Amino acid sequence: MAEDRPQIYLLTPPSFDLDIFPQTLSRVLAAQEVACIRLALASRDEDAVMRAADAVRLVAHEHDVALVIEDHLQLVERQGLDGVHLSDGARSVRAARKALGPDAIVGAFCGASKHDGMGAGEAGADYVVFGPVGETGLGHGTRAGRDLFAWWSEMIEVPVVAEGALTEELVRDLAPVTDFFGIGEEIWSSDDPVAALARLVAAMG
């Protein structure tokens, strides 16, 4: 892997078939070097989330990849996960860090807010996510532009993740100014996630 190339931060689909997805994930992890996986489930059913966490953790740790869970702080230690991804910017970072200790991964989604990102970093986040970087009807529609990533990469040491509606063109454009690409629906909606990810990785240069 090129030293200066961004790393891959993989998001799971919001829901998936436990009989199929773990094998698909395993193929993706065998094909590309992935730094971290985020269990990004839409479900609020604790039992379903725990079963999914078990299945994904087995695959992730088999490939020596860290696994964080979106927002469900209480499940991190219970399910043997590596940390938590917080979707509310800087607000919960300090409490999560206190609850999980210094070794857990704590990340924060900060939309397109430089202020939120800086707050999360100061509160102890291991990374911040800005997005969406592409065109999407989801969320409140504010895109995180290249200038935000360029400024952050130059001024702030906390690693930054670019995610949301990525295209090969956006990946090419942002590769010099981001540490990670958060990739999920871009590959899972494809018939061949391994090939879809390979195209995005090729675009990183």
From TrEMBL:
Keywords: Thiamine biosynthesis. Pfam families: TMP-TENI. CDD domains: TMP_TenI. It comes from the Bacteria. The keyword Glycosyltransferase does not apply. GO terms for cellular component: cytoplasm. Pathway: Cofactor biosynthesis; thiamine diphosphate biosynthesis. Residues 8-174 form the Thiamine phosphate synthase/TenI domain. One of its GO terms (molecular function) is thiamine-phosphate diphosphorylase activity. One of its GO terms (biological process) is thiamine biosynthetic process. Transmembrane segments: none annotated. Gene3D superfamilies: Aldolase class I (3.20.20.70). PANTHER family: THIAMINE-PHOSPHATE PYROPHOSPHORYLASE, THIAMINE-PHOSPHATE SYNTHASE. This is Thiamine phosphate synthase. It comes from Paenirhodobacter hankyongi.
